[in-house]
Amino acid sequence: MAYGDSLFRKTLICVGILECFRQKKHHRYGKMEKTMKIVGLTGGIASGKSSVANILENCGAVIVDADLLAREVVAPGEPAFHAIVEEFGNVVLRPDGTLDRTALGKLVFADVAARKVLEQITHPRIAERAGRRIEEERLRGTKVLIYVVPLLIEAGLVSMVDEVWLVSVGKEEQVKRLMKRDAIPREEALRKIAAQMPLREKAAYADVIIDNNGLPDDTAHCVRLEWKRLLARSTVSGS
After folding, report:
1. CATH 3.10.180.10 fits 3-234, yes or no
2. Which end of the chain has fewer CB atoms < 10 Å from its terminal CB, N or C?
3. What is the pLDDT of residues 58-71, one digit of tens each?
4. How far apart are CA 81 and CA 6, in angstroms?
């Protein structure tokens, strides 16, 4: 994944998801707080959020991934896609006609005004889509929803969720995984990690910390155990 792509998607995630939770907190989704527990699953880059989310999904958890929502709203054919191309031109398109997230990411992060325009285009669409997914689950009677949000803490969403789960990994292990995942040199991996809030600081906000330093089976065992505990807590609080 290119760095510009990552920055671009995180911008979309933060502005849209924050608005969604503000709506939930204050009016539109007020009833949801009494009927559905929302767990914010977060972590650092290459810490293993997606792996943990997959384990939870296999346990039967309902997953809503903010990263995927941000991709959906700018897919070809979507209103936001057309608005972005009209505003920024074909320079943000790949030869196949899809959005060049790397080019757009570099453009908006070098220009505050351009970033605000992008947020105005994407903000309401992400908020609407996220809110709709959450509301659909509430109406289905879902008791627990796992919301995967990379910048949950940085975006100020901690108070908007019922629990914060942090996927944690040691820095050296994080560097190795990032180098392998993105096929980048060590210096580039360190730069990406340094651009984020350190995991040790995020830990202060977490209700549950998933240690992802060990073998996959160890992590899976830990996640399944925490899932059972979460269901138990949700049953007690909902009784």
Report:
1. no
2. C
3. 999 999 988 888 88
4. 17
